[in-house]
Design goal:
There is one protein chain. Helix content is about 50%, strand content about 15%. The chain contains 14 helices and 12 strands. The protein folds into 4 domains: about 5-45; about 70-165, Beta-Lactamase (2-Layer Sandwich); about 170-245, Helix Hairpins (Orthogonal Bundle), CATH 1.10.287.130; about 250-410, Heat Shock Protein 90, CATH 3.30.565. Strand 3 (about 135-140) and strand 4 form a beta hairpin. It has a 5-stranded antiparallel beta sheet with strand order 2-1-5-4-3. Strands 7-9-10-12-11 form a 5-stranded mixed beta sheet, covered by helices on one side. It has a two-stranded antiparallel ribbon with strand order 6-8. It is extended and about 100 Å long. The longest helix is centred in the middle third of the chain and has 36 residues, at about 170-205. With about 425 residues, the chain is of the alpha+beta class. The structure holds adenosine-5'-diphosphate. Adenosine-5'-diphosphate binds near residues 347, 352, 359, 364 and 366. Adenosine-5'-diphosphate binds next to helix 11 and helix 13.
């Protein structure tokens, strides 16, 4: 406290003393008056602090202004998913998600009535655990196939906080994975069992010696082995496409040229139906941004299906054009039995077949359209199946054009730059 005050005061007193001595020595004449005036002003200046450090007064410790405690309802509204606060077995608070799931009547209700589920009732009726507990799985709360994870924790004043986390998506993904492994194993086991059966029969001297029987059995074994091979190839394709799904293909692919190439491959394979392919192509469409091998696989699968499921002798028409929004479109049209509307949403599921016997007899794996769907998604395109029972099916693909090439063509047509020939 003395620090700032002392130095100034001492200086001021010193100046006044000097002025007083001068007055005394000079016997109060004009000079003395001037000197006392200067001394007085200097003293006043020092006393007002113009020539010194500011006085540091002790400060009271700073206290932060008290903030209002957030409202409990506000807090639970900010949590993702349904949250309930339980006091004395009754629901005291519920956020909007909880009201949406369990109904607007639950506030004030017994929690076992609010969450009507045997698994929930057991945990909520028991004593409050002091250590974190495993969540309880609740199936069928809200909708029949909905899966929830219920977390219950306690507060110091004996209330319970119930938080429900929606696990429906991850359960569906897990089920799909389990179903897929089961289906793939089943699809492989059937031809394998058949091959093993024929090998055993051929090992029998009587059947093995008959050249005609042996030839027939070997043909069946060959067909079954080919079926397994196709299935394994499709499974490998699917996993490869899935592993690349976030890598956007960016090569410019000329679809008119690719369709021509696929058509020649099908003609070379000597399938009689390949002669029914009719191509109606607009050769001026922009190239698409794509993966050439995968786009070729789409064409093989779609044209293959049209050949398999269209009536013998009827045309399989491939069209290529550009729509008014600039998207490149391809459609594959057949004249066959068509597909009933209830099957349409499920056609891209792995191993889904409208008529399993017919698909297998035609060499189908049940994976063709699942592969098409994944490739189209990787290309940021769209894919649509329209069908009329007894008339036929049209599958249409929409693919975005290759941006760089499209921009170069546009620039070339609007300037003197050399025109890019395709
Ligand atoms: P598959 O190998 O069995 O042909 P896909 O995944 O290619 O498998 O097709 C799934 C199912 O959709 C087929 O089994 C078939 O029942 C039906 N389907 C596909 N394309 C056509 C079509 N052009 N006409 C009629 N049905 C079709």
């Amino acid at each position: 406290m003395l620090h700032g005050f002392g130095s100034r005061t001492v200086t001021a007193i010193g100046l006044v003393i000097v002025a007083a001595i001068a007055v005394f020595l000079l016997e109060w004449n004009l000079q003395a008056a001037i000197i006392s005036l200067v001394g007085g002003i200097a003293a006043a200046l020092v006393a007002t602090g113009t020539g010194d450090q500011p006085i540091e007064l002790p400060r009271e410790p700073e206290v932060a202004p008290a903030r209002p405690t957030p409202d409990l309802q506000e807090v639970i509204e900010s949590v993702l998913g349904p949250v309930l606060i339980i006091a004395d077995g009754l629901v005291s608070h519920a956020n909007a998600a909880a009201l949406g799931l369990l109904g607007h009547h639950i506030v004030g209700e017994d929690v076992r009535v609010a969450i009507r589920h045997p698994g929930a009732a057991e945990r909520l009726a028991g004593p409050l655990a002091t250590t974190p507990q495993e969540p309880v799985n609740l199936v069928g709360l809200g909708a029949r196939d909905q899966h929830w994870e219920m977390h219950v924790s306690g507060t110091t004043n004996g209330q319970r906080i119930v938080h429900l986390i929606d696990r429906t998506g991850s359960h569906a993904a897990e089920r799909m994975r389990v179903d897929f492994v089961a289906n793939a194993s089943h699809e492989l086991r059937t031809p394998l069992a058949s091959i093993l059966g024929y090998i055993e029969t051929l090992g029998d001297d009587k059947a093995g010696e008959d050249a005609q029987v042996r030839g027939r059995f070997l043909k069946i074994m060959f067909d079954e082995a080919r079926r397994m091979q196709r299935l394994i190839e499709d499974l490998i394709s699917l996993s490869r496409i899935e592993s690349e799904k976030y890598r956007l293909p960016d090569r410019a692919v000329d679809l008119a040229e690719l369709i021509g190439e696929v058509r020649s491959e099908l003609l070379d394979a000597q399938d009689k139906r390949s002669r029914d392919i009719v191509a109606d192509l607009d050769l001026g469409v922009a190239p698409v941004a794509g993966d050439r091998a995968q786009l070729s696989q789409i064409l093989h699968n779609l044209i293959g299906n049209a050949m398999k499921y269209g009536r013998t002798g009827t045309p399989v028409t491939i069209k290529l054009w550009s729509d008014p929004l600039g998207m490149v479109r391809i459609s594959v049209v057949d004249e066959g039995d068509g597909i009933a509307p209830e099957h349409l949403p499920r056609l891209t599921e792995r191993f889904y077949r409208v008529d399993p016997g017919r698909s297998r007899a035609a060499g189908g794996t049940g994976l063709g359209l699942a592969i098409v769907k994944h490739i189209v998604e990787r290309h940021r395109g769209r894919f649509d199946v329209a069908s009329t029972v007894g008339v036929g099916t049209t599958v249409t693909l929409m693919l975005p054009p290759h941006q760089k090439t499209t921009a170069a063509i546009a620039a070339a047509t609007h300037s003197d730059a050399p025109v890019i020939k395709r």
